[in-house]
Amino acid sequence: MAAIDARGDDVVLRLEDNERSLMLTVFTDLAALLAEDEDAEGRPDSENWEARLGLVDRPRPEDPALLRLFPDVDPLDEERSAEFRRLTEFDLAQAKAHNVRIIVAGLRRGAAITLSRDEVLAWMKGLNDLRLVLAVRLGIDTEEAQEDKYAHRGDLDESEELTLTLYDFLTWIQDRLTMTLLSEMQGDDDE
User: Fold this and answer.
1) CA 135 to CA 68: how far, in whole Å?
2) From CA 113, how far away is CA 132, in angstroms rounded?
3) Contact 39, 56 (CB under 8 A)
4) Distant-in-sequence, close-in-space partners of 58: CB < 8 Å, separation ≥ 6
């Protein structure tokens, strides 16, 4: 079973091999979901200065999970949302992909993963993004929908049950990382 402990300024996350393998798989899948589209000239966004400067229109995501990660700024105003997406989505996508790369690199280090404070923050953000994707896939979009999903857990098919279990596991890790970081920050205040 996973364990999280503070060690000085670092946080150590210990995972069983099967937990680490599963997390590598789902974060690799998240990286693929976030993967850059290539423009008409075959260049990824990161090499396209027009995209970097917000000069390129960015289509509204069709995948509901991507739309959850890159939501409309104003669901009632398509024009405003498109403008906001054009100006912000490149940087937001780059930041999300960066967090996922930090997580995958950490998972590849082995069963005991030592994380700096900045890495913990990246993990917390990446875990949140993955949990949002899983919530969309499970149909959890409100607190009531979540309560209903748990109340009828016995009626879920195997795939949904496994996804919900993964959602719970990721929630636990995110919570433990948050609590560890908060207790560390409170310790800094005492000095």
Assistant:
1) 10
2) 24
3) yes
4) 51, 82, 85, 86, 89, 90
Determine the pLDDT at residue 39: 44
- The identity of residue 41, as a single letter, is E
CB 128 within 8 A of CB 154: no
| CB distance 40 to 143 below 8 Å | no
The domain tally of the chain equals 1
Q: How many CA atoms lie within 13 A of 7 on its CB side?
A: 13
Residue 53 and residue 14 in contact, taking contact as beta carbons nearer than 8 Å: no
Domain that holds residue 8: 3-190
Q: Cβ(123)–Cβ(106) under 8 Å?
A: yes
- How many Cβ atoms are within 10 Å of 189's Cβ, its own excluded? 6
Pairing between β-strand 112-115 and β-strand 3-7 as defined by DSSP bridges: unpaired
Nearest alpha-carbon partner for 90 in 128, 127, 48: 48
Q: What is the pTM of this model?
A: 0.86
Helix axes 17-34, 78-107, angle to 10 degrees: 150
pLDDT digits over 88-140, tens only? 888 899 899 999 999 999 999 999 999 999 999 999 999 999 999 999 999 99
Phi, psi of 84 (to 5 degrees): -60, -45
